Amino acid sequence: MEVQLRIAMIGGGYVGLVSGTCFAEFGTDVAIVETNPDRLSALREGRIPIYEPGLDRLVAENVTAGRLTFGDDMAAAIRGADAVFLAVGTPSRRGDGQADTSYVYAAVEQIARVAEGYTVIVTKSTVPVGTGREIARIVRATRPDLDFDVASNPEFLREGNAIADFMRPDRVIIGTDQSKPGGTQRAQDILRKLYRPLYLLETPMVFTGLETAELIKYSANSFLAMKITFINEIADLCEKVGADVIDVARSIGLDGRIGKKFLHPSPGFGGSCFPKDTRALTAIGRNAGSPVRLIETTVAVNEARMQAMAQRIIAFAGGDVSGLTIGVLGLTFKPETDDMREAASITILDQLDRAGAHIRAFDPAGMQTARTVLPQSVIYCSDAVEVAEGADIVVVLTEWNEFRSLSPYKLKNRMKGRKIADLRNIWDPQAIREAGFDYISLGRPD
Ligand code: NAD
Ligand code: UGA
User: Which sites are catalytic (predicted)?
Assistant: First the structure.
């Protein structure tokens, strides 16, 4: 009979909670360790501290089945665990853009102190190249007696689609120290067993070295960020030359070598990962004496774009928004999440606020966090139509489905002005203009 696997997941945030729950759903016993008291008490009380569709049901089922537990006792969680996953944050360090690995190393020291018997320490967090080796050094220094391996198993899930992404990934990457005397077969076998349900679905599994696995994650995120930035610049060009970015994106995407995904123009990519990971890759490249100039440019172009979008709204308003009311639909960095980290709305609304605009905003999931990061003066509304009340301009910043189906006439009845700036291209220009609006969007002909 198969022996039941047990793992500990250090960090119960977006990645730790989703991947821990999905491993439990695969039949593994999972102990999630979370040090944030608010997050932990929510989880213990059966509340999900993040917005992720379908996660509440999956967590409840696995808690009821006895496969998923939450706590803050590291020693209890890792006792007898076959693998300990690190899913703590690796935010950008202020100043140099490098990933801050302090949470990772702090957790590793805790693990090393209390581990008993053979342990595989696995980074699920996105970590700079060389982190796996540094983890091994810390463990050896803290516990020279401990039998352990380090593995890198980067996570590719997207917020809002996290469960499906974890359950049906394009690939699973497992990096181990291939130079280790005696090899790392034991660590690989444990990880292969953990991912067995995906193996059965014929998910490609790439077994590689530690550094390679770490670089794969940054390369994937940076490539996608570069792809978005490319189409954003093409959208700008379309506006100048009278071309349509939707047809350009669709047509180039039909070439299988390019692919149609991640070619939607936007006010700039945001979120907890693309901005920080592109900055981190440029730092990794510079430090290694091999600059990744395309990604350095991607970072600069994306940051400038968010500023430029605010200027575009001001220009659309006639050059001055002072005293005008701007209604904003969508605040989160993308739909189906409550995450506001590095959302374009932060830069754009900050500039509009400084320029003297009165901002009314609505987001289906992000308003609680928005209150902590957006200008104090923003007025939060209970729905999209309320946002339009007395507005001179309505601006779309996040493409939530409920905005797509909104009737322009409903907005018109409440608005003072007749201007709509749709920075996610959610509406049909002709229909909006026929409804009597002065309308701008991204990269589409007037
Ligand atoms: P997060 O901030 O939501 O979660 C991290 C959690 O770890 C927090 O709740 C924090 O309290 C907890 N924590 C920190 N130190 C701890 C410790 N010593 N013991 C126990 N808990 C501890 O972050 P996230 O979005 O889940 O990202 C985690 C990592 O995964 C990052 O490296 C990120 O780049 C990567 N990643 C994130 C996503 C995503 O969609 N968010 C996707 C793929 C990879
Ligand atoms: C992204 C990656 O897609 C995941 O594979 C990865 O695991 C994750 O980062 C991570 O490392 O954390 P996520 O940040 O959740 O996932 O969201 P995405 O759907 O990738 O969107 C990121 C940003 O790019 C958003 O601001 C979104 O609006 C923007 N975007 C995306 C565009 O502007 N255009 C597009 O065509 C696609």
Answer: 273 (nucleophile)
Q: Choose one of 149, 184, 203: the last residue of a domain.
A: 203
Residue in 274, 276, 277, 332 to alter for ligand 2 test, most ligand atoms within 8 A of Cβ: 274
Q: Is residue 218 part of a domain?
A: no
Across residues 362-379, what is the average pLDDT? 97
Question: Residue 54 has which token pair?
Answer: 């379908």
- Looking up residue 345, the CATH number of its domain turns out to be 3.40.50.720
Specify the pTM.
0.96
Q: Can you give the pLDDT at residue 200?
A: 84
Largest Cα–Cα distance in the chain? 75
214 pocket-lining for ligand 1 (C-beta < 6 Å): no
pLDDT tens for residues 284-336?
Answer: 999 999 999 999 999 999 999 999 999 999 999 999 999 999 999 999 999 99
- Which SS3 state, helix, strand or coil, does residue 293 take? helix
Q: Which domain holds residue 270?
A: 245-440
ipTM value:
0.98
What contacts 180, CB < 8 A, 6 or more positions away?
149
238-254 average pLDDT score: 98
| Contact 90 CB / ligand 2 (< 6 Å) | no
CA of 242 to the centre of ligand 2 (A): 28
What residue spans of 65-209 are helical by DSSP H? 74-78, 102-114, 131-142, 162-167, 185-194, 196-200
CB 13 within 8 A of CB 50: yes
Q: Whose Cα sits closest to atom 31 in ligand 2? A: 262
Together in a domain, 170 and 258: no
Query: In testing the pocket of ligand 2, which one of 245, 266, 298 has its CB within 8 Å of the most ligand atoms?
Result: 266
Please say if 22 is a catalytic residue.
Answer: no
pLDDT at 2: 64
